[in-house]
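Incident review: delayed structure delivery

Summary: a single-chain prediction request sat in the queue longer than the usual turnaround. Root cause was a stuck worker, restarted by the on-call engineer. No data loss occurred. The affected request and its eventual output are reproduced below so the record is complete for anyone auditing the incident later.

Affected input:
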Amino acid sequence: MRARLTVLVALVVAVTLLLPASAWSVGKILDSQAGLVDFDVRTESLPPSAEQRSLVERLGAQAIWNQYGTPSSLVKHGGYLATGVEGGTAIAAAKAWLAANRGIFRLDSTAGLELFNDSPLVHSEGHAISFRQTFGELEATDGGLVTVGLAPGEGGWNVASASSTVTGDETLTGSLRLGPEQAWLAAAASIGEPHSLVDIDKVNAVKAGAAGWDALHVARLDDVQRVRAVAFPTVRAGVVPAYETIVLNTDVAEPVAYRIFVDGRTGEVLARQSLVDNAHDGPSPTFSFEGILPPVDGGCDVRKGPYTVTADAHVRAIDVFANADSPLQDIVLRLYFGTTLVASADTFNTPERIRYSPASGVPPGDYFVEVCEFDDTANTPPLEPRTYRGTVTLDTSAPPAPYLARWKVFPANPPLHTLPADPWNNPSTDTRALWCWRATAAAADCNRVVGNLAARAPWDHDVKGNFPTGTTVGNNAVTAESWTDPFLPSPNQFRPTSPTRDYSFPWTNSWNTNDCNPGTPYGSAFVAGESFDVSAAVTNLFAMHNRMHDWSYFLGFNEDNWNGQASNFGLTEAFRENDPVVGNAQAGAALPPPLVYAAARDNANMITLPDGQSSITNMYFWQPLAGSFYAPCVDGDYDMGVIGHEYAHMIENRMIGKGVRRSGHHAGAMGESHSDLLSIEQLNESGFVPTSDENRWATGTYATGNKLRGIRNYAGNFPPSGAFPEPSVYPQIDPLNFSDFGYDVTGPQVHADGEIWTATNFSIRRALAAKYDAAFPESDTALQSRCADGLLPPESCPGNRRWIQLVLDSFLLMPTAPSMIDARNAILAADTLRFGGANQSELWLAFAQRGFG
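Output delivered after worker restart:
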């Protein structure tokens, strides 16, 4: 018995452009979709030259070659392709290595390579640097990328790998002769959508959300059409000047959506890809088979089948599994398309697996499976028992988008008001960012990559069932609209859905532009799943709860320390899981007056329940209330300062309360302070604030309309003393110290008294930031972001990260009903445990300045 490995290489590229649909709106999940099969003229392959193979051999490397005759992957097992590569940055070093090894990639020069993306590897100093080929003003698409994996080493950078779809052709074959409109017409005609030039008007591409594209409005089509000039690499016909087009018609029973490449010289269609992802009622079809091997060496059982793939089944792969009943049996598994062998597998002993996934999809027809005993040189017959069994699965699942999952969100808040009072003039400019779970080839796809090890799986993934939920339900958070109850989940429990996992829903600033109008009669403006940007609101709240989960996880709010997750991945007893935070968006918004004004406006809350039970947080609409508080008409679901504050209540309650709730007035006051501090720190570390002219250290500037202090009497960054007060000038100082308990007109009150602890902690933050600023500058936004994402330990971060780490460490050291003195001692102890007492002097000075001895 021995091992041979049959390598099956397949690449399935999924491109999605369909907008996600709300569960209550007209966009429904389709059960099936009949359409044209994908098509590509590039069916040939170009072998590497002898010189290329020689260059690879000199590196001591191994290469897998792509259809362009360049390395699909290039590695040196057990070592580096190169060490000590010079370069001031990872990008420079990667470019230098490519220049030195350009012959392997059939390149005469690297001048045509432009930086496409720098992807730092999580929890590592490594980078994956990608470059894209350019040809004059045209960028390569559907090919033309090369990625170098490298990390810093002694005397330079160590290159570990390279992968590519680059072509050795470095000039265009001809020039564009068609205009973009003509190219789109050719693309549309190729799928049976005939139009003429008189049907086409150009529209503003920026407004159409299609930067870099020409946006077209075509008569009889409601959808915006798109087209752009590109360079299209081919195998033997050079690099073709072409147009990439998007042809959409979603106003029909069976939506039309194709990405089509058109030769810009002739109008010939070069490639076509369907953009419609289909949902199916059940799992992919699976068929069982069994048999018995002949009693001779190398014998094959009769072929099993046929397993029929139809043209409209959308099968992207065939998975075959076979397992012999004797564990030492050495079997060979083969898959046939008709009588043609298309894939085989033979590793060690049983079992064997095949995944057959051609790049253009599985061709329709009949497939057969054959199981044989390995024909060895010793003519050894098969072992008894000779029986085997297996399965064939026709994979009809939709391929994932390059970003895997994406959310369109306000990282901090929408644009702030431009007037200091009613009518406030809150702009309706959509400044949201695209947060993607995974980096993509197209920079425009994402503003921030949020994939991380704290979550382990994308935010919308059910880790127990191992499937994407397609909505605002995941392991860390469950979020829905809750219009009819101010505190608990209530109807309609609307959640937006997206079969493509692209949660980019419209935001129109509707509550503001409608001047807080609930409709006449009262409540008539609330249409389930549609009104007041509810899809965007639910999505935003869901993403922000996940952001707080991930940020705090790296600071210690994890499974062991009572965080909230549906699955704890086996790290705790089962009774401590099943508790993702429940977020109620626009809570109680449709309640009738006067109850709505008392219970469901101008506030937010968190109901922290013990570990193993989901805590519940509520976000409300804000509006002016006569004789009370005069807020702008805004939705609290977009104010991350407030959202983060409420989430942080679960953090401090559970960590200090050791899985339940901490208790006592001091603890309650510090709870309000800690919630402000954690929320503010997350925003500042991440570089999300300021968004305008607000004080970036204030909480709730969007919701309250107060850009200076937010929801508090004092902003945390106000110094303890300052200039002598002047008439009509607000004194931006915070003189509070430990002796000022009960200073507010209400007497002892947790929100007001908590500001004493906030001022104290800001003194600590300021002191540690100054102490470590020379080596770890607080102003280094890139460093701050890496620390916020948990990529670096606190000792490699600015002083503010060390401070917030001590704060969360102290939660675990405090008693469950701590006084502020207990909390002071816990922070001092945390510094001793973590940093060997390196910051005791700074800590004591800050405490003393605020009256803590």
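Verification: The longest strand covers residues 239-249.
Action items: add queue-age alerting; document worker restart procedure.
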